[in-house]
Prior knowledge:
This protein is an all-alpha fold and 370 residues long. The protein has a single domain (3-354), classed as ABC transporter involved in vitamin B12 uptake, BtuC (Orthogonal Bundle). It is built from 15 helices and no strands. The chain has helices spanning 3-16, 18-40, 45-57, 60-85, 93-115, 121-149, 153-173, 206-223, 225-235, 237-242, 247-274, 289-299, 304-328, 332-352, 355-364. The chain is globular, with a radius of gyration of 21 Å.
Amino acid sequence: MTSRSSLRKTVGRVIFGFDFFSSIAAILIGFVIGGVLMTLSGANALLAYEQLFLGAVGDLFGVTETLIRTCPLLIIGLGLAIAFKGNVWNIGADGQFFFGAIGAAGVSLYLMDHFGRDLGVVAALLTLAVALASGSGFALIPGYLKARWRVNEIITTIMLNYVALYLTQYLVSGPWRDPQTITFAQTPLLMPMIPKILAGTRLHVGVLFGLALVVVVYIFMQRTTTGFSIKVVGKNLNAALYAGMSVGRVSILAMGISGALAGLAAWIEIYCVQHRLLTGLGIGGMGGYGYTAVAVALLGMNNALGVLFSAIFFGALDVGASAMQLRVGIPMALVSGIQGTMVLVVVARAFLARPSVIRWLKSRRGEAIW
Length: 370
């Protein structure tokens, strides 16, 4: 089978497959529930959704901001999709994101103290390498615990999220705090500052990184033996063991790649968007990209192309929700509730689409199981 025909089949599965339509149904159900909540609160749901759409893609500012919000969700979501394909439930992307940010910021502060603020390409590459290594290394901890002692990775990754978050709070409030700021806990401006790619907007080169990664992840999962091994381990553990695959190593590798991409997202967020390390990184501050990226990966069916569409949807939803709040007066608590409802519906769809759940539902109806 040629790579072109394989790509056509993948696109066909994403666009015309049952999973695609169930994902669309999940989104529509989320919008309906959100509309009901707004109507019960006395708001005009149709006007609110109109402003959500216009805020996300109604002008150049909205489009570029949507792409900026899409970027970290896309990169983290691609990493989580790889882990989920290998049946490794990495819920710790937030922690890996923050740990990658800590590593990159620490290197920047050291270089700025010793070599001044005029840092160039070498510093950018060095901070990038440290961010990748930090995110990956932090993810390898639960990966190794799962492979070596079968420790549940969901529990360990969630616990480590708080370790990374509180470590970030300590650093930006203490030894790394910018002495010139009083209100906000943050570091000084970090160098190097990556230039924007569209004048008059905040659009940055990280968006191009994210689009390129869609192609890289697709090729990695579809055309390499390592990607094939990850899929086999995730789909049929007994078959993987029978084929002589090292299940533990594959699981650790999937977790490491996932953490590295979370670290990459943190590097982009610091050097292309915020230019500082602060606890407000993420959606709504104090993290959030990692948890939303779980829904991005699930809605995207753990497929690179699907994750791209899913990340754009959630990026637009985040930007549009802010516009909806400002222009229609929807309370922020209700906006957060609508977003949470969307995520809940998406996760429920992914759970109900699992083969074991489908078999159980069929058995309850007395249908034959083949």
